[in-house]
Specification:
Elements: H1 2-28, H2 34-46, E1 51-57, E2 59-63, E3 66-75, E4 78-81, E5 87-92, E6 99-100, E7 105-109, H3 112-147, H4 153-186, E8 188-190, E9 195-197, E10 207-208, E11 218-221, E12 226-233, H5 234-246, E13 257-261, E14 270-282, E15 287-294, E16 306-312, E17 317-322, E18 328-330, E19 333-339, E20 345-356, E21 359-364, E22 371-375, E23 386-390, H6 395-399
Parallel strand pairs: 1-23
Antiparallel strand pairs: 1-22, 2-17, 3-12, 3-16, 4-11, 5-7, 5-10, 6-9, 7-8, 9-11, 12-15, 13-14, 13-16, 14-15, 17-21, 18-19, 19-20, 20-21
Helix pairs in contact: 3-4
């Protein structure tokens, strides 16, 4: 019984081996072709399809890079209006906070006492001139008499001295008259500069004294042009000066462009130029005080106002720029996806510079003319096969979409 079971098991195993061999032979003979087609279909299905993406070429352009700062506006001239003569204030002729021109009448101080002083000084001048006329007549008469020995020479000398003294008295009287006339003019307080006048500190009817110790009547600040002062980093200033020195313009700091914007402005629409770079670095902060000059013909810029400031390079330089939407972030690193000639994506870490007119400057990691993914960045990974579609628009236009 046991031997019969053993023979049956051996016979079954042999039959299985024979059937397997027959199947393999059938495949080698090419009989069941559908088995090979099914395998190819499975392989094709395992490969992912090419991912459609938009690509654009990295461009090189001549652009001006800018550095951003914040600062305050300053008036070029600021004057405290004080009375130059004492008296009672009769009237104020300006509206507080208004723009005035040089020579405009601001206040009037009672002129009557000074008008009387002018009349008195004028009378003194007339009296002195009369004495000069008399002294000249006496001198002429003496010179005639001395020729006939009617009077001695000493008499002529005395008359000459009296004539000279009378002439000096005229000059003194005229100087006193001029002083009186100036005092009368000073009763009309006029704007010494063009600008914006402040509040009236002393109202009409009050008595004021003359001199620097007298109270301030009002203040006046110039408007056009106006300064924008700010502190720039030592690196930015020295780099700008080095590039300026290397250019044809030499040390003309006026060639360094400046743009500013106020809280009411979109961006920095107001243009100007550097007027001053201070002569030393602040050791505590590592910054240099810089001042820009700006036109302000309409007077909308006000001293003390906070402004955003950008300073640019003296000359444009060739820079590689790309759209911001082509840039990805990997923790603290920035990267782009470069599409090679085989349409496969390559991860490329880049070092970025500042933004310029909607484009991002690439300092290293990318070459001009390389195709980068600008749309569909989130759908691709390094090594993925893509179906690139070249974007006809420029990189700048892509950045603004």
């Amino acid at each position: 019984m046991k031997s019969t079971v053993t023979r049956r098991a051996l016979w079954g195993a042999g039959l299985s081996i024979l059937l397997s061999a027959a199947g393999g032979a059938a495949v080698l003979l090419g009989l069941p072709q559908h088995f090979e087609a099914d395998a190819a279909t499975e392989t094709a299905a395992a490969l992912p399809p090419a991912v459609p993406v938009s690509v654009a070429k990295a461009q090189s352009r001549r652009i001006t890079t800018w550095e951003d700062f914040s600062g305050r506006l300053e008036a070029i001239e600021r004057v405290e209006i004080r009375p130059r003569v004492g008296g009672a204030i009769l009237q104020a002729h300006f509206r507080e906070g208004a723009l005035v021109k040089k020579g405009d009448l601001l206040l009037t101080i009672d002129p009557e006492p000074y008008a009387a002083a002018v009349d008195r000084a004028a009378a003194e001048v007339a009296a002195a001139e009369a004495r000069v006329a008399l002294a000249r007549t006496e001198l002429d008469r003496g010179r005639k008499l001395v020729t006939t020995s009617a009077i001695p020479q000493s008499g002529v000398d005395q008359r000459l001295s009296a004539f000279d003294e009378a002439q000096a008295s005229v000059r003194s009287a005229k100087a006193a008259l001029r002083t009186a006339e100036l005092d009368l003019e000073y009763t009309e307080v006029k704007a010494p500069i063009s600008g914006r006048v402040g509040r009236l500190e002393v109202t009409a009817g009050n008595l004021v004294a003359a001199g620097s110790a007298s109270p301030v009547l009002t203040t006046l600040v110039s408007v056009d042009p106006i300064y924008a002062s700010f502190s720039a980093s030592e690196e930015v200033v020295t780099t700008a000066l080095a590039r300026l020195q290397a250019s044809a313009g030499g040390n003309a700091i006026e060639r360094i462009p400046v743009q500013i914007g106020t809280a009411a402005d979109e961006g920095t629409p107001i243009s100007g130029h550097i007027q001053l770079i201070n002569n030393e670095v602040d050791a505590a902060t590592g910054t240099i005080r810089v001042r820009a000059a700006l036109e302000n013909a309409d007077g909308r810029l006000i001293p003390g106002q906070f402004v955003r400031i950008r300073i640019g390079e003296p000359e444009p330089e060739e820079k590689l720029v790309i759209s911001d939407r082509a840039i990805g972030s990997d923790q603290d690193k920035k990267f782009v996806f470069v599409v090679g000639s085989d349409n496969k994506v390559e991860y490329r870490q880049v070092k970025l510079g500042p933004n310029s007119d909607g484009l991002r400057i690439v300092e290293s990691g990318l070459k001009t003319g390389e195709n980068i993914v600008v749309n569909g960045l989130q759908r691709v990974r390094p090594g993925v096969l893509v179906a690139p579609q070249q974007v006809e628009e420029t990189t700048a236009s892509i950045a603004t979409k």
